[in-house]
Amino acid sequence: MQLIRGYIAALLAISANQLAAQQVLYSSYLNDRNTDRFEITGKSGDYYWVQKNKKKNQVELPAMPWRSDKQPSFEIYDAHLNEIATVEAAEITDSTVKEYYIPGEKNFDHLILLDGQNKTYLSVDRYTPDGEVIATNKIIDTLNFSEKGNSFILLRSQDRSKILLLCFQTISDAPLLLHGILFNENWGVLSTRKYVHPYITQPFVQYEFFNYPVEHFSTSSIKLSNNGDWMMVAPSGRNHNFSLFHFNGHDTTFVYKDIKLPASSSVEDVALCIDNERLEAMAGIISKFRYSTLKNVEVAKYSMESKKISFDSSYRFNTLNGGKVKNENLYEESFVAVPGAGFMLLKEYGKDYPKTTNKEEDSYDMATGKEILFTNGIANNEAEAQVNNDDYTRYNTLAGPKGYYKRGDLSVFYFPGSKDDSCWSGIINKEQTTELNSSYLSYAVAPSSGRLFFMYNSFLWKENQYGSATVLDHNGEEVRGEEIVFSKIKNNLQFQRARQISDHEMAVPYSNYGRNGFAIIKF
Question: CA 284: distance to chain centroid?
Answer without folding.
Answer: 15
